[in-house]
Structure formats: structure tokens, C-alpha cells
Amino acid sequence: MTKFLTPWETGLLAVFLATLALNASFAPEFLTVQNQINLFQLHIEKIIVALIMTLVIINAEIDLSVASIMGLSAALFGYLVNAGMPGGFACLICLAAGLIAGMVNAVLIARVGIPSLVVTLAMLIGFRGLARVLVQDNSLGDFPQWFTDLGQKGLIGPIPLAMVLFVLLLILLGMTLHRSSFGRQVIVIGTNAEVARFSGLNVARVKTVLFLLSALISALCGLLYAARLGSVRGDTALGFELDIITMVLLGGVSIFGGKGSMVGVLLSILIVLNLRNGMGLMSITGHMQTGVIGFLLIGSVLLPNLLADFRARKRKDA
Predict the structure, then answer these.
(1) Residue 260, Cβ density class (10 Å: 0-12 exposed, 13-18 middle, ≥19 buried)
(2) What's the CA gap between 294 and 40, in Å, rounded?
(3) What span, in angstroms and rounded, lies between the C-alpha atoms of 28 and 11?
(4) 2 pLDDT more than 70
(5) Residue-level pLDDT at 3
(6) Residue 177, domain extent
(7) Of 144, 239, 264, 312, which one has the greatest count of Cβ atoms within 10 A?
(8) pTM, full prediction
């Protein structure tokens, strides 16, 4: 099977299997069906956003505002529903707000030319501020029953709606990246945007589509998160961008763009989820878990560069 994987993906597969074995040895309940569902359900919104973040980073961009857009969407939904608006209409307003947020990012990045790191870092602060303004220090709940059922009950047996959406988006975005002309444009632009532009590709349009999709999917995940929790606060989804970016970079996606696969990201998602779940079953605190994920993020950036430098030196010496 490993002949279909890159060396990095093969290493990820080995780490994933080792993590499974370690978790099962320390926590016998780890392998139960319910725990495996919980493993995904507790972080499902993050891994959905990680799928579109994969395309953004392969395109040599970054979107640090995804978690804040999630929080803004959830807070806006809570605000509108508590103001008396029907839940279905409120969902549409929240998705539209996500598209507007994505358009703001896209215009500043693709049209004005400001680096995505600067723009989305500013929007991370701005969108989070809007979410806090909407709900203040309150926790808003009392959502329609149908809405919370979408997040808390199974859609297909015990499998919730969010997990179904994850599988569908994994297939759709995987096919888009690896089997479509748009996916090839994403990779070519990520490799060298200037060469792509001189080759006739509409670089601004591709980047605009990516940031619109990133914001729309983030807004959708904010609604899914609100439905699963049954309440929202101004700090909803705070810090989620750390896990999301770690999953993508650990999957072998180059932070410099032009390189990566959905298979590698899927393997890294499984590793991060199993690490989080295993540490939780072993009563390791959330702060310690975040520290482990932070080290994974550093390693996923440094190790590929160190390996590439080692191979370059080896070829030079030969």
C-alpha cells in the first residue's frame, strides 16, 4: 500500500498506527465505537475547515481568520435567534456574512496585493471583536430544536451531519485538487504566482475563489459548532486556527505553497485527533494538549526543510 504514498505520507501512516497502539494500550475504552465517533465529533468543525485550508496553503497563502469567522457566524446566529428571527433565515444571514468576510479578505489580498498573513491576522482580531460586540459577555442559547438536533443527533445511525459533510467535502475537495484544472491552477500559482500570471492564468480569480470558500466553509462550521454545543459566546472557536494549520502542515503541505496532498492531510488529521483523544482519556490537561500540538506545528514546518537541506547537501557532496 505504501507504494501509493509519498515518503512523508508513509511516515505519517506509521505514526498514526503507533498512536493507535499506544492509545489502546493505555486506555482500553479507546477502541470502542462510541469513542471513535466522539473522537471525530469533538473536533469535526476543525477538520472540515482544515480541508479548504489545504488548498489555501498549497496556493502559497494563509487564512488566520477562519476561527474568528466561525466565532462571528455562531455569535451572529445566537444574536439573531434571540432577537426573534427564524432559525432558518438566521442561518442564511450567517452564511452570507461569511461570504462578505471572505470577500473582504479576497479583495485586500488578491486585488490590493496585501500579504494574506497581514490581512487575515488583522481580520482574526476584527471578526473576533465583532463577535464579542454581538454577544458581549453573555452566553446565548435557546436555539430551535431542529437546529440543535442537527449538531447533537445522528443523521445516519450514530453519525452526525457534520461527519457526513466532512466525508463529502474530503472527496469533493480531494477531486478538485488532484483531478481538476482548477486544482492544477492552485498548485501552479502556489509554486510561482508570477510565472502562472505570465502563462495566462487568472491568479486573482483563483485566490478570490479560495478565500470565499474558506470563509463560507468556516461560517458553516461556526453554525455546526453552535448546533453541537447548543449555545454561543464571543470566544466561540477561539484558538482553533492552531489545530487547523497544524493538521495541514503536518500532512506534508508546504508552507511556501505548491506542494501537498489531501491524503497526507487526512493522515495528519487522524494523528492529531487520536493524540487529542488519547491524551484526554489519560487525563492530560487541555493546556498540555495545546502545547503538544504547538510542538507538532513547529516540527511540521522545520522537519521538511531540514530534510530538503540534507538531501541538497548530499547531492552536492556526491
Answers:
(1) buried
(2) 20
(3) 25
(4) no
(5) 57
(6) 2-317
(7) 264
(8) 0.91
Adjacent-strand bridge partners of 232: 140
- If one counts the domains in the chain, the total is 1
Tens digits of residue pLDDT in 32-67: 888 888 888 889 999 999 999 999 999 999 999 999
CATH number at residue 279: 1.10.3470
Q: Is the dihedral of CA 91, 97, 100, 101 positive or negative?
A: negative
Q: What is the mean pLDDT of residues 133-137?
A: 90
* Residue recorded with cell 488519547: 278
Please give the span between the terminal C-alpha atoms of the chain, in angstroms, as a whole number: 31
154-156 and 159-160 beta bridge pairing: antiparallel
Distance CA 51, CA 263 (A): 11
Instruction: Kindly compute the dihedral angle of the four CA atoms of residues 102, 103, 109, 113, in this order, to the nearest 10 degrees.
Output: -170
What region does 86 belong to: left with phi over 0, alpha with psi -120 to 50, or beta? beta
> In angstroms, what CA-CA distances link 302 with 260, 266, 296?
16, 20, 10
Chain centroid offset of residue 250 CA: 12
